[in-house]
Specification:
Layout (H helix, E strand, L loop, with lengths): L28 E2 L5 E6 L15 E5 L7 E5 L7 E8 L2 H6 L4 E8 L2 E2 L10 E6 L7 E5 L8 E11 L8 E7 L7 E5 L11 E6 L7 E3 L1 H4 L4 E7 L5 E4 L6 E4 L4 E11 L3 E10 L2 E13 L2 E12 L6 E12 L2 E2 L6 E9 L8 E6 L7 H13 L4 E6 L19 E4 L3 E3 L13 H10 L5 E9 L4 E10 L9 E8 L11 E2 L11 H4 L11 E2 L7 E4 L19 E9 L14 E8 L5 E9 L18 E4 L5 E2 L5 E7 L2 E7 L1
Parallel strand pairs: 1-14, 17-24, 25-26
Antiparallel strand pairs: 2-4, 3-15, 4-12, 5-11, 5-13, 6-10, 6-15, 7-12, 8-9, 8-11, 13-14, 16-18, 18-21, 19-20, 19-22, 22-23, 22-24, 25-27, 27-28, 29-30, 30-35, 31-34, 31-36, 32-33, 36-37, 38-39, 38-40, 40-41
Length: about 650
């Protein structure tokens, strides 16, 4: 799992290995997004092996993890521009590493504009004290394969004194002839520390006059330095404040937390202590795979909780007391987190909303991702908004996107609908993001059902409750109506496809659009589009749908009507392929939990597909199957002869 220093601000603002403070060198790192543009995602790459440990201990230091994405540098001139990529050690890191020597470095090969080759032959490592000149340089050879890692020993190691005002490490290269663009590697997670990644450009004879930080937008530079010595810090801290913890009554349980560790030896176990319900607890977590030596290595651990036989809700202080059985001293070793014992712990579902269009050649990867999810993860909740094609119902989206294809997770995190935020051990990368979010506890229980008020009016009925209760909050219920099975024959329905010349290297659903695949053409006709948003009614949340205050476990019911006669029949080819989604959103519009309900009980009017026995008696049943003689104010099953459907009676 990747590092997410941006999140660590909640625990003593730790955004580097040693709780970094603003640095002097960082004042030179400016942000100017016009100087770089987004590129494609890089394929998964293996980490380079660390240089062999010598007599002293060895530590790999980096603000990043493996390469995950690349960004195109603009305004570079082939054969005339030298590109400098750099990161700066934060002041606290300098002090913490004083006395140790930098003996090597690891970098990942950038790519030229084709993103398939590399022709760099004059790469140069350097370090600088103030980013005004190179204090030390060393030429090295980069691998020919883009994104590949290479580790190099420094001919003249540098010993950190801790008195440096600034210390930056990086490498540079000249953009080869016949290439007017080049891609730089970074880890893809926005980093709150500006010194985690920056670039500068100049002609080939001068050092850049300015450097521009890309860390806050793109993440840390994919580069590490190898250090050797006898003075490495050792500690484990909370990488971010844990989410509120919800435990089922009467059962042992556990919760996962994100930690970071700096150690010259592998981290094999972590011990926690806490006091809950008046009792002191110690729990030891042994990692199935030890975390290797390094700085700010992020990993997950599990904290165990013994069964509690009563409902509880209190703030609990959790401390990381030991790792590897030795006392742990860390500025971020303690956090306070609410812990509640509930009669029921709700199941969380992430709302995945995709933004796409048939005109968009790269949107085929979003189409393929949604089809993969439908087949392999049918419980996931998905909605797709189309742009400037026959399936468009709005261009005002519930998440701020800047490009197509895009997706939002719970309307809070905008990601690529295929690659997500980072690499996971999943065939489709974004599935890892979704599973991780689904594992985050929520106090919100959400249910949704539907009924037919009339032939054209579909009513969604949501029931929500908060298991711990709240006071004076602004929560709402949002609704989405989506449809499956959409298709058309005009050219505006043809899906543009930029993967037609690619070799198959993706999930099967996207390989079908590659060279030799079923849809391996630049324009694909005959596709069936699913999960398409067909109504904007209630998408942003309905005012007053949830009271400002709610007692623990108190249920709230709310209904919303969709008039299908006002929706183009093109968008609803089959009323038995609809789906209603209900979600709880907070005051910022972020989704806290959601649920979906399939609509497959629409009765075709008599004379269309058959004649209903109009003389048969009408019977009503509640949703538990019990017959009701005088139904009122609710959803019921209406049966007449062999025909049955859900109806709402007010």
């Amino acid at each position: 799992m990747k590092k997410a220093f941006l999140l660590s601000a909640v625990v003593a603002a730790s955004c580097s290995a040693f709780a970094a403070a603003p640095s002097l060198g960082a004042s030179l790192l400016k942000s100017d997004a016009s100087d770089f543009g987004f590129g494609l995602k890089a394929p998964a790459v293996a980490k380079a092996p660390a240089p062999a440990t010598r007599a002293s201990e060895s530590l790999e230091f980096s603000y990043s993890d493996e390469v995950y994405s690349l960004t195109m540098l603009n305004n570079v001139k082939a054969g005339q521009t030298r590109v400098y990529l750099v990161f700066e050690l934060a002041p606290d890191d300098l002090k913490g590493l004083a006395g140790n020597s930098v003996t090597g470095f690891t970098v990942y090969t950038p790519s030229d504009g084709s993103m398939r080759t590399n022709s760099i032959n004059d790469a140069r490592f350097f370090y600088s004290f103030d980013l005004t000149k190179e204090e030390y340089t060393q030429d090295f050879k980069m691998p020919a394969i883009p994104f590949e890692a290479t580790s190099v020993s420094i001919d003249t190691p540098y010993k950190i004194t801790g008195e440096e005002k600034s210390l930056c490490f990086g490498y540079s290269f000249v953009v080869p002839e016949r290439n007017d663009m080049y891609y730089m590697p970074y880890d893809g997670i926005p980093n709150s520390y500006a010194g985690a990644g920056a670039f500068g450009v100049s002609d080939t004879s001068e050092f850049p006059s300015e450097f521009y930080s890309f860390a806050s937008e793109l993440g840390a530079l994919s580069m590490s330095i190898t250090m050797e010595g006898d003075n490495f810090p050792r500690y484990v801290g909370f990488n971010q404040k844990p989410h509120d913890i919800y435990l089922p009554i009467g059962k042992s349980s556990s919760t996962q937390v994100s930690l970071y560790g700096t150690s010259a030896e592998p981290i094999e176990s972590v011990e926690f202590s806490y006091t809950f319900n008046g009792h002191n607890y110690n729990t030891n977590f042994v990692l199935s795979s030890p975390v290797g030596p390094g700085a700010s290595k992020v990993f997950n651990a599990t904290i165990g909780f013994l069964p509690q036989d009563e409902l509880l809700n209190e703030n609990v202080t959790i401390t990381i007391t030991k790792f590897n059985g030795k006392p742990n001293v860390s500025p971020n070793a303690t956090v306070e987190v609410p812990v509640a014992v509930l009669s029921q712990v709700p199941v969380r579902q992430t709302l995945i909303e995709e933004y796409t269009g048939t005109w968009c050649g790269y949107c085929t990867r979003g189409y393929a991702a949604l089809e993969y999810i439908k087949e392999n993860y049918p419980d996931f909740v998905v909605a797709a908004y189309h742009n400037q094609d026959p399936m468009t119902v709005t261009t005002s989206y519930p998440a701020a996107i800047s490009s197509f294809p895009s997706a939002s997770l719970d309307r809070e995190t905008v990601v690529d609908p295929y690659y997500g935020t980072q690499s996971y051990d999943t065939e489709l990368p974004i599935v890892g993001d979704i599973l991780a979010l689904n594992a985050v506890p929520t106090p919100w229980l959400v249910k949704v059902d539907h009924a037919w008020e009339s032939e054209d009016v579909l009513v969604a009925k949501a029931e929500v409750s908060n298991m711990v209760g709240f006071t004076d909050k602004n929560y709402k219920i949002a609704y989405i109506l989506v449809a499956d099975g959409l298709s058309g024959t005009s050219r505006s329905w043809f899906q543009s496809n930029n993967y037609a010349s690619d070799r198959p290297q993706y999930i099967p659903q996207l390989n079908a659009f590659c060279r030799g695949g079923q849809y391996g053409k630049s324009s694909v006709q005959g596709l069936i589009f699913n999960d398409v948003v067909v109504s904007t009614t209630g998408i942003y949340g309905v005012d007053g749908s949830i009271p400002a205050s709610l007692d623990a476990e108190q249920a709230v019911e709310h209904t919303l009507s969709f008039d299908l006669s006002k929706i183009s029949s093109t968008l609803i080819p089959d009323r038995n392929q609809l789906r209603v989604i209900a979600a709880v959103v907070d005051a910022n519009g972020n989704v806290l939990n959601c649920a979906k309900n399939e609509v497959n009980d629409y009765d075709v009017p008599a004379g269309v597909e058959g004649v209903i026995d109009e003389n048969a008696p009408v019977e009503y049943f509640n949703l538990n199957g019990q017959k009701v003689s005088d139904p009122s104010n609710g959803i019921f099953i209406r049966r007449q002869g062999s025909s049955a459907s859900k109806v709402i009676i007010r």
